[in-house]
Amino acid sequence: MKRTLIIIIIVAAFLSGCKKMLNQEPKDTTYEEKFWKSENDMKKALAGAYASLRSNMLDQDYFHNLGDMTLGDQFIIIRSGPYFSNSDWNIQVGKFEMNYLDVFRNWSRFYSTILQTNLILEKLPLVPDDTFADDPEKGRKNIAGQTLFIRSYVYFQLLRTFGDVPLVLTPDPDPIANKPLARTDKNIVVQQILNDLDSAANCLDMTYEVEANRGTVPNKAAVMALQSQVYLWRACVIKKPVFEATPDMADVAKASALVESIIGSGLYGLPAPGGKVDSIQYAKVFTGNTRESIFELYTRYAYNEGSNNLMPMKFLRIPVLAKTDWSPLLLGNSFVNNLYPRIIQTGPNPEDTLPNTDIRRSLFLYDADGSQPILTKYSNIIYNNPNQQAEPYLDNNVSLIRYADVLLNRMEIAVYKGELGQAYSQLRSFRRSRNQPQMDSALYVSESPLTYNSLMDEIMTERSRELFMEGQLYFDDVRMKRSVVPWLTPARYNQEGFLMPLDPALFNNNRLLVQNKYWAGKI
């Protein structure tokens, strides 16, 4: 589906301290009478919801800052320069109470997306059948399924970031007279997300009507992938919010069934002759629309949606990025040395070494053996002024859910279920598919003994190797409880210190809000 920047917002959809869900009157009070009258109107409104989601996830690098910058300087080194302020260092060390972090602490703008989806779901049943190009029932289900997926994704992001959040499921008929809103218990929010995803799954097909839409338009598999993540989050974090706790197995079983259905569909996974993914095909994953993609944000230059300032671009410099001999971000030395070393120790003896032939080492890193390798995962550059090689833009879709994530979740689930041998076998198969040299024995120190913790550590390491700069690793660490984030100690975790504080602006004129407990008295 070709994206458009049209955002159909009948009412201004921004929270102001949760006192007024909507703080502006409609610009044209007759507009609603003219809109919501046809399938085409609904598709424009849906395009607006996608555009709103994309804008909110990428605003000030929200997606990558919370998902990756939090990992610390062992992953990312922030260089002094005009592009970064103290706020970036504060994110990296977990000081979310400091100034200039409003965009990360304030949930208001996400409700613009939520209210857009609420409007679509309210108006969709009223659209006349004769305005649909094909079967009206199928057309309505397709739009409803996509809309429910978007709303669910936004609420899941809010849930993981803040815990309890206001649950708003209908457009407000009188936005000016809106009352202050309290936070809704996270257990209610997560159940609503799961209910919405059940409904979305019943609306969507597993296959794509248009192959070019692969990944950028959610299908039933995307719904199941998101739902499996929600079940795992509830199992590991909501029901067991203590660092030492193991997950709730009823939810783990539900996540497992969804993951197996996706894998069993045969619709995903890059061609892998001999069990090894072709590096040329793998390189296309981060441009977008491949069999690896389950859901991604459409951010292509051809439709004026390319980015010139996303965080992955800030690693680039000459020769990857023309006329740029300095980059504001560098890869941490331990990230390269630990995850992509030149030589891999494959056994217990000093002579048990092999060159690292992992295809990701050459695909994700330029000059991997140099003193300052460049992250090239997202580096499909188009110059707005090609003759001068000036005004560079990233022409990469931004991945939100990939098939690799599903496979790695499968290993994690196997560990939770006590199937340690199965998890180890799946991990070795995954590494083999990336052409990583294999350890000689399960008894070798880096992969043994086959215990819960040793396997979980290895799976988290593989997630770091595979999913870095895809906005997920912080939330993976919270769910898996691996202490990869240096400042997220068990003591802080047990006080729900993995959640963001609420921005002080949200408390203006709203007596119903309370601060997250770790941050009470700190902000």
Automatic annotation (TrEMBL):
<dbReference type="Pfam" id="PF14322">
    <property type="entry name" value="SusD-like_3"/>
</dbReference>
<protein>
    <submittedName>
        <fullName>SusD family protein</fullName>
    </submittedName>
</protein>
<keyword id="KW-0998">Cell outer membrane</keyword>
<dbReference type="GO" id="GO:0009279">
    <property type="term" value="C:cell outer membrane"/>
</dbReference>
<dbReference type="InterPro" id="IPR011990">
    <property type="entry name" value="TPR-like_helical_dom_sf"/>
</dbReference>
<dbReference type="Pfam" id="PF07980">
    <property type="entry name" value="SusD_RagB"/>
</dbReference>
<feature type="domain" description="RagB/SusD">
    <location>
        <begin position="374"/>
        <end position="480"/>
    </location>
</feature>
<dbReference type="InterPro" id="IPR012944">
    <property type="entry name" value="SusD_RagB_dom"/>
</dbReference>
<feature type="domain" description="SusD-like N-terminal">
    <location>
        <begin position="95"/>
        <end position="232"/>
    </location>
</feature>
<keyword id="KW-0472">Membrane</keyword>
<keyword id="KW-0732">Signal</keyword>
<dbReference type="InterPro" id="IPR033985">
    <property type="entry name" value="SusD-like_N"/>
</dbReference>
<comment type="similarity">
    <text>Belongs to the SusD family.</text>
</comment>
